[in-house]
Amino acid sequence: MTTPYTDRPLAAVTVDAATEHFWTQAKEGLLCTRRCTSCGKVHWYPRALCPFCMGDTEWCSLSGRGTIYSVSVTRRAGPIPFAIAYVTLDEGITMLTNIVDCDLDDLKIGQRVEVTFKPAEGGAMVPMFKPA
């Protein structure tokens, strides 16, 4: 069986003071998160306080490369099938995301992926991943 990826409409994102830098970087094709200035750990979802030590954080760029930790192809939730996955980035954080631009039935746990960006309503670019 093959299930080719098909683009689907993405809802507009919510941009506020806490997320503005993330979405600005995404429009430039860069994936970023925050790193603690005290313990040095990166974390996902970006937040002003470190979830590990409650220290202050600063923005940092990510490689955009990682490995599929878990993946599921959803065929009945709507008219367009899609793959939802946890991707563990090379920096050690794990993101819930979509896998795109491939045959969805060929996806496997442990497969290498890289970030790509898909347009949402309102012009934002949403980070997703494709096979490397």
Overall description:
There is one protein chain. This protein is mostly beta strands and 132 residues long. 6% of the residues lie in helices and 39% in strands. It has 1 helix and 8 strands, in the order H-E-E-E-E-E-E-E-E. The chain has one helix at 20-27, and strands at residues 32-36, 42-43, 57-61, 65-74, 82-89, 94-99, 112-119, 125-131. The strands form 2 sheets. A 5-stranded antiparallel beta sheet has the order 6-5-4-7-8. The protein has a 3-stranded antiparallel beta sheet with strand order 2-1-3. The longest helix is centred in the first third of the chain and has 8 residues, at 20-27. The relative contact order is 0.23. The model has no long low-confidence stretch (mean pLDDT 96). Residues 59-118 form the ChsH2 C-terminal OB-fold domain.
Task: List descriptors.
three-stranded antiparallel β-sheet; mainly beta; 132 residues; globular; single chain; OB-fold domain-containing protein; five-stranded antiparallel β-sheet; NA-bd_OB-fold; 1 helix
Provide the helix percentage. Answer: under 10%
**H/E element order:** HEEEEEEEE
According to DSSP, the number of beta strands is 8
Radius of gyration: 15 Å
Distance between the termini: 22 Å
- Flag low-confidence runs: none
Average of pLDDT: 96
Beta fraction: 35-45%
Overall spatial form: globular
Largest sheet: spatial strand order: 6-5-4-7-8
Largest sheet: 5 strands, antiparallel
Query: Structural class, judged by helices and strands?
Result: mainly beta
Total count of helical runs of at least 4 residues: 1
Protein name: OB-fold domain-containing protein
Domain ChsH2 rubredoxin-like zinc ribbon: 23-58
Domain ChsH2 C-terminal OB-fold: 59-118
Pfam family, one: zf-ChsH2
